[in-house]
Specification:
Helix 3 crosses helix 4 and helix 3 runs parallel beside helix 5. It is globular, with a radius of gyration of 20 Å. It contains eleven helices and ten strands. The structure holds adenosine-5'-diphosphate (ADP) and magnesium ion (MG).
Length: 280
């Protein structure tokens, strides 16, 4: 379990560039949850997730992993980073290795994984990311397409088998095919018990993958709850500059006439509700 207790982060304090990136944030992420983090550009999403494995330290407050303060001197931060894997925004921009294999193996090797396990971990992560042929491992990561690069970058984190997988806008700039593969993978991981936290601007993605939403606005947490409750609060959504998906808009309109319509994530769910209703 990951917990933030009254966390504050200020960049460039006491200068004209000072920015209160996070203000008094408390939250808890339990095992096997899938949490979407939303908010405008600059609302503090990337800062928030970098707290999760100690890449950024809070100026005030605490970050606890399984009840231990990850920023205390007694903690081995490598162990924290093994448990909490973060995939940055545009991770492929940080490629450096000559082969895909070396790129994906770098993290687990650093964590002290032995050669024998390493090979399995790398190939299994690549397979999870939708690469069916092992040939990909010998190619240069720079020679891949955009979507392939992204999936290799994600494989380099999942090769470490983190309990909590954190992704900063994983689908941004990907094509339909890549998105499908990634979304399938994430849903499968959640089914298999992995905890997944992801930042997104895409509300369809949020509807499809997340159970819970945390919304930030100007560094403050303005919502933390179920996806269905988030989308019922149209005023809040407008305030934080988010596009309501058309299926949710339609369902909310129908609710005026059909008070018993359930929350619908897809057009199919709306149509099957109406079908059932008019059968009677
Ligand atoms: N390394 C940094 N140095 C100074 N200010 C930063 C830095 N990173 C982010 N900020 C500022 O902190 C605020 C939150 O940024 P960020 O966490 O990147 O938001 P988001 O990911 O939601 O776009 C913004 O005002 C941003 O300009
Ligand atoms: Mg960001």
């Amino acid at each position: 379990m990951l917990e933030l207790k009254n966390v504050f982060v200020t960049y460039d304090p006491n200068t004209i560039f000072m920015s209160n990136a996070l203000v008094d944030i408390s939250l808890m992420i339990k095992k096997n949850e899938s949490v979407g983090i939303v908010g405008r550009i600059g609302s503090g999403k990337s800062t928030l997730i970098q707290l999760f494995n100690g890449l950024i330290k809070p100026d005030n407050g605490a970050v606890l992993l399984d009840n231990d303060d990850i920023n205390s001197k007694q903690i081995d931060i490598r162990k924290v980073r093994k448990k909490v894997g973060i995939v940055f925004q545009y991770p492929e921009e940080q490629f450096f290795a000559e082969t895909v294999f070396a790129e994906v193996a770098f993290g687990p090797k650093n964590m002290g994984m032995r050669e024998t396990e390493l090979k399995d971990a790398v190939f299994s992560a690549l397979k999870d990311m939708g690469f069916s042929s092992e040939k990909i491992a010998q190619r240069s990561p720079f020679s891949l397409s955009g979507g392939e690069k992204r999936r290799v970058a994600i494989a380099s984190i999942i090769a470490m088998n983190p309990d909590i997988l954190v992704l900063d806008e994983p689908m941004a700039g990907m094509d339909f095919n890549g998105k499908e593969k990634l979304s399938k993978y994430i849903k499968n991981e959640i089914k298999n018990g992995r905890t997944v936290v992801f930042v997104t601007h895409n509300m369809e993605e949020l509807l499809e993958i997340a159970d819970r939403v945390i919304a930030l606005d100007e560094g403050k947490k303005v919502f933390d709850g179920r996806v269905r409750d988030f989308f019922s609060d149209e005023k809040l959504i407008e305030k934080i500059g988010i596009d309501i998906p058309s299926v949710v808009r339609m369902r909310n309109k129908l609710k005026k006439y059909y008070s018993d319509i359930p929350f619908c994530r897809t057009p199919l769910e709306i149509s099957s509700y109406l079908k059932k209703r008019y059968r009677h």
